[in-house]
Amino acid sequence: MKSWLDDETKKKDEGGPSSYTPLSELPDEDPNKRNAPDYFVPERCSVLEQLRISIMSPKQLIGLSQLKVSRFVKYVLIIGFLVIIMTYIVPTAATLAGFGGFHKLFEEKMPNFTVQNGTLTAESRFSVNLGNYEILMDTEEDTVSQDKFLGKLVTVAIGKKRVQVVVSQSGLNEVAVDQPISYLFEDGFTRQNLVDAIPGFYIALGLVGLFSMAGVIVKYLIASLLYMILAWGLAKQSDLGLTKGNIFRLCFYAQTIGILLVNLNEALGFLIPSLIVSAVGIFISIRWVAKSLGPYLFQKGQTPA
User: Fold this and answer.
1) Which of 78, 111, 139, 230 is in Cβ range 3.0-4.6 Å of 123 for a Cys bridge?
2) Which pLDDT band, with edges at 50, 70 and 90, does 146 fall under?
3) What is the pLDDT confidence band of residue 131, given thresholds at 50, 70 and 90?
């Protein structure tokens, strides 16, 4: 992937002209820039402008793909951050504000409990939701039954004798962790120990957010590779001189609307079935790729079939 991002090197490898320079890098006085095509975007195109173009002007995606790699990287990071704001930061912050922070949660809402000889004893059942995450403590059974889950993406289920971390995808639950209660609490552990560990909880929330953001970015970069398989075949039928790196970046920009739609729907609690929204996002992404490359096809002396 790294080699694809090096436009000049790739052009040489493919036998193209070594003097190839994207329009975005030409000086303002260059005559080629004064006669720039419709897809041209300025070299110093801001992240906000990239976002606007990705959503509203698919014909300029080619221009975005020719910007410096550093600007593309910034855009990818911003998109990842926007997704985490919608799906993690806002829901988590709203939940924390709803119960007054961890101090109020542990001291006023959580029942007293204690751990002795590897067995958890609590005064009552306890559950809290943090965005797409649920923490459930129920000591009626050794292991909490999955029919008590709320269907969150990740559920930490604490039973009388066992702790499970369950990941839910498309209605299916996968147990990622299943350990005895001593894995989480040592003998003599009480609610006060949780109060003392509150700073660590905030650090953990931050780390979860960072790892979630990294996962989002990797997922959509992989999707860009898949879209590129289709788009590269189209790009080769034009004389735009685009490299695989260009097409890879173009495909990421083309996903912007789909990314925002899918994750906004998730943040709103899946108001529309996720399968439908994902299908719409894929359709728009493919449509944006086609609209960006379509006007420049068959420019190598070919004629449409």
Assistant:
1) 111
2) confident
3) low
Distance CA 192, CA 112 (A): 9
Distance (Å, whole) CA 173 – CA 117:
29
Give how far the C-alpha of residue 197 lies from the chain's centroid of Cα atoms, to the nearest Å. Answer: 29
For residue 56, give the nearest of 267, 260, 275, 268 by alpha carbon: 260
Nearest Cα to Cα of residue 89 among 127, 131, 129: 131
Q: Is the model's pLDDT at 296 over the cut of 80?
A: no
Q: Which of 229, 252, 245, 288 is nearest to 77 (CA)?
A: 252
Q: With contact defined as beta carbons under 8 Å apart, do 289 and 234 qualify?
A: yes
C-beta separation of 41 from 60 below 8 A: yes
Which residue is it, tokens 């303002």?
28
Partners of 136 in the β-ladder: 127, 157
> pLDDT-derived band of residue 20, with 50, 70 and 90 as boundaries?
very low
Q: Which is more confidently placed, 171 or 124?
A: 124
Query: Residue 113, SS3?
Result: strand
Distance CA 293, CA 82 (A): 27
Q: Which residue has the tokens 């039973």?
A: 159
Structure tokens at 267: 């943040």
| Token pair listed for 258 | 């789909």
CB 113 within 8 A of CB 137: yes
Q: What is the pLDDT of residues 198-223, one digit of tens each?
A: 888 889 889 989 999 999 999 999 99
Residue type at 109 in one-letter notation: K
Burial 247-277 (b: 16+ CB within 10 A, else e): bbbbbbbbbbbbbbbbbebbbeeeeeeeeeb
∠66-303-32 over CA atoms, to 5°? 35
C-alpha 241, offset from chain centre: 30
